[in-house]
């Protein structure tokens, strides 16, 4: 699913890859996306265990939105940190 296509290294099997952070520079390269009609996005960030579904997001604002969500999650204390 996340193996790049030979003719389009930014595309896997039905998902958009963020290889070298080219599509969405504000989130890690390990992220991948489903993009559908009506500017619907499914964002998967496996290293942080994030799965987000967003509808009616202006594509021009998508990178900024995902970056803000990512930064907020990274800034939140984890259970392990909170227990320390």
Automatic annotation (TrEMBL):
Source domain of life: Bacteria
SUPFAM superfamilies: beta-lactamase/transpeptidase-like
Entry protein name: Beta-lactamase-related domain-containing protein
């Amino acid at each position: 699913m996340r193996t790049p296509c030979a003719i389009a290294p930014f595309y896997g099997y039905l998902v958009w890859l963020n290889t070298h952070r080219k599509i969405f520079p504000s989130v890690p390269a390990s992220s991948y996306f489903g993009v559908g009609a009506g500017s619907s996005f499914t964002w998967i960030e496996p290293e942080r265990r994030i799965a987000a579904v967003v509808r009616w997001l202006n594509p021009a604002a998508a990178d900024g939105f995902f970056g803000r969500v990512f930064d907020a999650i990274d800034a939140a204390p984890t259970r392990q940190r909170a227990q320390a």
